[in-house]
Amino acid sequence: MDMIFEKKLAIPMEVKEMYPISAADSQIVDRREAELRRIFTGESDKFLLVIGPCSADNEDSVIDYITRLRTVQEKVADKIFIVPRIYTGKPRTTGDGYKGMVHQPDPSEKPDLFKGIIAIRKLHMRALRETGFSCAEEMLYPENHKYLDDLLAYVAIGARSVENQQHRLTASGLGIPVGMKNPTSGDLEVMMNAITAAQHRHTFIYRGWQAHSMGNPLAHAILRGYVNKQGHSMPNYHYEDLAHLWELYEQRGLQNPAAIIDTNHANSGKQYLEQIRIAKEILHNRRYNPNIASLVKGLMIESYIEDGAQKIGEGCYGKSITDPCLGWEKTERLILDIADEL
Fold first, then answer.
1. Is residue 5, in this structure, part of any structural domain at all?
2. What span, in angstroms and rounded, lies between the C-alpha atoms of 305 and 66?
3. Is residue 266 part of a domain?
4. Alpha-carbon gap, residue 131 to 133, rounded angstroms
5. What is the CATH number of the domain that holds 211?
6. Is the dihedral of CA 54, 73, 133, 295 positive or negative?
């Protein structure tokens, strides 16, 4: 056997018993879930911002950042609903490199999955307790979702996972909005198939159980750009792209047509400062076309305390160790500008 089984990990129920959330915090999660649902069903016209670091690599700086978001949220609460990104598992194109806090609670030390599971639960709990924010995660590993399912507001399925059957079926059993990114190839049919699958009922194996899902009517699209055959980043946030996505939804007859536009990744060519311009172009397109206005529910923005990115070990507080992010001053200005333009 080429695989070594090092140790058996605690199951989600055991971890939740070790680190339970309070009844008051649970009520906050429920209230935010209800408000998010209204955004995706069209009952609320608030604009959603899923915003935060590319990867949550340090508990204190992440909480510092989210605390700053809370202050801004209060200023724009009549127009914008903020869901901070706390992404603790990172997909790696080649499989190599830092895979997120769930693997390495300390990026400079060797992987320890049990410490990682505890660290990510404590981080989400601290964010909820100290700021009143239930947050967003990327569901990189479907079987890990139960460790956090009582804490989350929003889940994204990444470009490399969206065609995977287990991701789609697990998404169909979640009671919160799940965004399906277009794959790195840019094939929107793959994304639409994933949304269709997530909105339907299924019977499947989950964590050793025969599980039944009821279908998730809040499954929706995330446009994040793509990479062409020559390896060049290509955007899909322009007016024609959004109008085309509206047509795809019309053809499919899916519930609650909705899209979140990722302003970074291939849409920006990982030029993080372009996120400001991209966000404002999308707002302009929403004002111009009522179909696009009803379809595009919000933006996904990569932002942290300091501009750019650094290598692991460089030690700059609040600076990404994965993709470059928009720094705090520019982020705050952007959020206020978005509110002014809505």
1. no
2. 10
3. yes
4. 5
5. 3.20.20.70
6. negative
Which residues span the domain enclosing 212? Answer: 12-341
DSSP H or E run through 292: helix 290-295
Q: For residues 250, 194, 90 and 55, what is the CA-based torsion angle, rounded to 10 degrees?
A: 30
Report the half-sphere exposure of 17 (CA within 13 A, side-chain side). 5
pLDDT in tens, the chain (342 residues): 678 888 899 999 999 999 999 999 999 999 999 999 999 999 999 999 999 999 999 999 999 999 999 999 999 999 999 999 999 987 877 667 788 889 888 888 898 899 999 999 999 999 999 999 999 999 999 999 999 999 999 999 999 999 999 999 999 999 999 999 999 999 999 999 999 999 999 999 999 999 999 999 999 999 999 999 999 999 999 999 999 999 999 999 999 999 999 999 999 999 999 999 999 999 999 999 999 999 999 999 999 999 999 999 898 999 999 999 999 999 999 999 999 999
Query: What does the block give as tokens for 270?
Result: 């990982």
Counted domains in the chain: 1
Is the pTM here over 0.85, yes or no? yes
Domain presence at residue 298: yes
Give domain status of residue 7, yes or no.
no
